[in-house]
Amino acid sequence: MAANPSVLVTGASTGIGATYADRFARRGHDLVLVARDRTRMEALATRLRQETGVAIDIIQADLTQAAELAVVEARLRDDARIGILINNAGTALGGSFIEQSTDDVTRLVALNTTALLRLASAVAPRFAQAGEGAIINIGSVVGLAPEFAMTVYGATKAFALFLSQGLSLELGPKGVYVQAVLPAATRTEIWGHAGADVNAMTGVMDVDELVDAALIGFDRREAVTIPPLPDVEQWNAYQAARQAMLPNTRQEHAAARYRTAV
Ligand code: NAP
């Protein structure tokens, strides 16, 4: 793998993905941009080629469509220049669970989890074989919080976090770095897609600040990066509480409270 490997970014036409593309181009990495809107990606690529001189390819793909997703998977499997995958493409959905259609939540899961999983699965064996490479999965703090009333979206983001943590444990010893990035509310178009007015919200981070902070976590090789969380000890305590519970789950018998009915 090259010293400055190519970076494949999904959801690169706008928002967090476009900002990652900008930052990695400025670091001198060639790029492969993936999203549905070719015009926007062409505009971004033209600007970044001019400003940074890096080479940029574009793959127009709807990652909820198996055939189009397969093109991106093949590129990740076969193109040994690609050393960083940014699994960023994702969307949100307005409404409560009973208001959301079965087809809409299925599409949400297809994009936010299935596509992310298939792309990681396509590239991980090659990275492990090379003993290097990085996968960045964009989760969300919503994945920690069923209380936020974005149930299916949050479930997809909990998947992204769990997958990242598991892959970090599996692939880290093989030289592959896996980072989960958990933004909170960030000023992008995603809020419009979910039927919310981001300008009416408080506590919203600008996308440049979000990505620059996430990249500091990347450079430090953090497994989980939560840019807006002021006190990292809260996250560490949460992980410690979870880990402390684990040995207690291996029991021959049910817990005492389940040994008497009602
Ligand atoms: P965004 O501005 O809406 O951008 C989403 C990107 O994903 C776009 O480039 C879009 O491009 C692409 N995309 C959407 N559907 C796609 C599909 N079917 N196939 C391929 N690409 C598709 O959203 P964002 O805020 O930057 O979100 C990026 C990631 O951050 C998502 O995973 C999101 O869940 C996560 N996140 C965002 C926030 C936030 O507050 N903004 C907070 C936490 C986590 P096309 O439309 O051109 O396909």
TrEMBL record:
Enzyme class: oxidoreductase
UniProt keyword list: Oxidoreductase
Listed EC numbers: 1.1.1.298, 1.1.1.381
Family affiliation: Belongs to the short-chain dehydrogenases/reductases (SDR) family.
CDD domains listed in its UniProt record: SDR_c
Function: NADP-dependent dehydrogenase with broad substrate specificity acting on 3-hydroxy acids. Catalyzes the NADP-dependent oxidation of L-allo-threonine to L-2-amino-3-keto-butyrate, which is spontaneously decarboxylated into aminoacetone. Also acts on D-threonine, L-serine, D-serine, D-3-hydroxyisobutyrate, L-3-hydroxyisobutyrate, D-glycerate and L-glycerate. Able to catalyze the reduction of the malonic semialdehyde to 3-hydroxypropionic acid.
Lineage: Bacteria, Pseudomonadati, Pseudomonadota, Alphaproteobacteria, Hyphomicrobiales
Protein name from the UniProt record: NADP-dependent 3-hydroxy acid dehydrogenase YdfG
